[in-house]
Amino acid sequence: ILFLIMWEKVSTQIKTYSWDNAQVILVGNKCDMEDERVIFTERGKHLAEQLGFEFFETSAKDNINVKQTFEQLVDIICDKMSESLEMDPTIAVSKQNTWLKDSPPPQQPNCGC
Q: Name one GO molecular function term (predicted).
């Protein structure tokens, strides 16, 4: 119960302090360490469902679901961006391009002091 209350607070903070269109997924890491598991998969899925997030389990050590999790998050972001453009097509043309140039900073005149 305490774990769920803590995550509800985290979820509320994410929704309160992040951008309106921030996309969040819940990721359980170190799924390769089955003997030391603290949160079972079903509990993670249930929590994600309650919070309105997608759930993934990953292991960077064994390269389990890392790429798939990242790709799913990118897909979610792209879908939300498409929805935003469909709702307001002027968004795409209203943004000004910003270009970064790799040039040295201007020389400061030497002080004769």
A: G protein activity
Please count the helices (runs of H) and the strands (runs of E) in the chain: 4, 2
pLDDT, tens digit, 9 for 90 and up, residues 22-53: 788 888 889 999 999 888 899 989 988 988 88
Whether residue 99 lies inside any domain: the answer is no
- Count: domains in the chain: 1
Within 13 Å, how many C-alpha atoms sit on residue 91's CB side? Answer: 9
Which CATH number characterizes residue 18's domain?
3.40.50.300
Q: Look at the chain and count its residues.
A: 113
Q: Measured between alpha carbons, how far is 31 from 62 in angstroms, rounded to an integer?
A: 9
Smallest CA-to-CA distance from 58 within 44, 69, 72 is with: 69
CA pair distance 83, 11, nearest whole angstrom? 23
- What is the span of the domain harbouring residue 10? 2-87
